[in-house]
């Protein structure tokens, strides 16, 4: 079942890529399944800030941000109002998401 399209844009200048996502998959899952480099030091359990991304489009379709996620975003590099942790952005419904991936060579923790 394919329910969403996620377009990944990259701050390091790589060309954008669009991939389909099934309900229940996270943005991190979709990135890793398609060979996109996105750090995930805690393994995707909201225990680090290394999967930090920016949601350019579609944030209203994502699960609400938790206090724990917010705490880790505060420790990420260059957090912004549209920052999220990719492992916590689980696809719930049919949607179009655009995600901006920060450079992967300098990270929070
Ligand atoms: S991989 Fe650690 S919070 Fe997402």
TrEMBL record:
Keywords, ordered alphabetically: 2Fe-2S, Iron, Iron-sulfur, Metal-binding
CDD domains xref list: fer2
Keyword Nucleotide-binding listed: no
Cofactor: [2Fe-2S] cluster
2Fe-2S ferredoxin-type domain ranges (all copies): 4-105
Signal sequence extent: none
Matching SUPFAM superfamilies: 2Fe-2S ferredoxin-like
InterPro entries assigned to the protein according to its UniProt record, in alphabetical order: 2Fe-2S_ferredoxin-like_sf (IPR036010), 2Fe-2S_ferredoxin-type (IPR001041), Adrenodoxin-like (IPR001055), Beta-grasp_dom_sf (IPR012675)
Family in the record: Belongs to the adrenodoxin/putidaredoxin family.
Protein name: 2Fe-2S ferredoxin-type domain-containing protein
């Amino acid at each position: 079942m394919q329910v969403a399209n996620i377009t990944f844009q990259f701050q390091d200048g790589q060309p954008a890529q669009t991939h389909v996502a099934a309900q229940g998959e996270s943005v991190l899952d979709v990135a890793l399944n398609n060979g996109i480099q996105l750090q995930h030091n805690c393994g995707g359990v909201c225990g680090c800030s290394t999967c930090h991304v920016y949601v350019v489009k579609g944030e209203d379709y994502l699960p609400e941000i938790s206090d724990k996620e917010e705490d880790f975003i505060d420790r990420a590099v260059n957090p912004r109002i549209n920052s999220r942790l990719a492992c916590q952005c689980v696809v719930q419904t049919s949607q179009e998401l655009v995600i901006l991936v920060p450079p992967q060579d300098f990270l929070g923790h």
